[in-house]
Design goal:
This protein is α+β, with helices and mostly antiparallel strands. The chain has two domains: about 180 residues, no CATH class; about 100 residues, no CATH class. The chain has ten helices and eight strands. Helix 4 packs antiparallel against helix 6. The mean pLDDT is about 90.
């Protein structure tokens, strides 16, 4: 998740430059209640234009920031696409450990939509520059009807862009907090004795298959892995019984950066190993299986 974390931080930093520039001509009003993102748990605010703050220099500054994003459109979409698997893993881990959705997988759809609105916003900003260069004086109580309609459109498009920035800011914050709390810096290795059906599903799908939730596993440094792999079938069954496993005939070694449910409270086993537990179905990297 390093690359994912860095990407989200970079992405939100760039979009916040737009928000910072827009803040000079906008005022935040009330929270929006009828947006699909709000129903998913996000806080979205509606903003109003401050006519008395609009001037050519600010409009040009805002356009410059929006054009930076537009110029990086292909890179942004490509980077999001490249991280789809990583986003899926984070989303699944979040749901399995937090019991709710992170909504990180909505990022590509939301990004495509906001890039469409950045096109429209650049057009409106250029038109606003033209109006101001022609000597337009803006006072909300005395704005010509056609100009009022123009700036109503400008305000609507601006709110669409800020909606995405609110979403991105919150989903990035939640993902980064989750990363720091739920993941180790480096992957750790574990093993699990399992039945043949569980074994086949785990190896085929790279996910921890089990009829128990949470699923017990044991810590598996290289020495332990080599020792177990050298066992014959009877020795493996005896090893399994020592850690309280009956009926298991297969063993899988995997690694993951996700912290076990009891990462700070491992359960000592009679053979000297420690038992940890993970939510069943988590994505794992299968290293060896026998």
């Amino acid at each position: 998740m390093y690359r994912t974390k860095e990407f989200l931080a970079w992405m939100i930093a760039d979009f916040k430059q737009i928000k910072n520039a827009l803040s000079n001509i906008l005022s935040a009003e009330q929270k929006v209640h009828d947006d699909i993102l709000v129903k998913k748990g996000f806080v979205i605010k509606r903003h109003s234009l401050r006519y008395d703050k609009i001037n050519t220099n600010l409009i040009r500054r805002i356009r410059g920031e929006v054009e930076k994003i537009k110029n990086n459109e292909s890179q942004l979409l490509n980077e999001v696409s490249k991280r789809k698997k990583s986003f899926v893993q984070v989303e699944e881990s979040y749901k399995q450990t937090r019991g709710k959705k992170l909504h990180l997988l909505s990022i590509k759809k939301e990004l495509k939509e906001v890039l469409h609105y950045t096109d429209l916003l650049i057009t409106r900003l250029r038109q606003a520059e033209e109006l101001l260069s022609e000597g337009l004086k803006l006072h909300k109580k005395n704005v010509p009807k056609n100009v009022e309609v123009f700036f109503a459109s400008f305000e609507h498009i601006t709110n669409k862009v800020l909606r995405f920035i609110d979403y991105l800011d919150q989903v990035s914050h939640n993902a980064l907090v989750f990363e720091s709390q739920a993941f180790y810096q480096e992957p750790r290795t574990y093993g699990r004795i399992m039945s043949t059906p569980e074994y086949k599903k785990t190896v085929r799908h790279d996910s921890l298959s089990s009829n128990k939730d949470p699923t017990p596993v044991f810590d598996a440094p290289r020495k332990v892995i080599d020792n177990i792999l050298s066992m014959n079938k009877d020795q493996l069954k005896n090893f399994a019984s020592q850690i309280g496993v009956t009926g298991g005939v297969k063993v899988v070694f995997f690694r993951t950066r996700l912290k076990p449910v009891n990462h700070d409270r491992p359960i000592p086993q009679s053979n000297g190993l420690r038992e940890y537990k993970f939510p069943k179905g988590i994505s794992v990297e299968v290293l060896q299986a026998a």
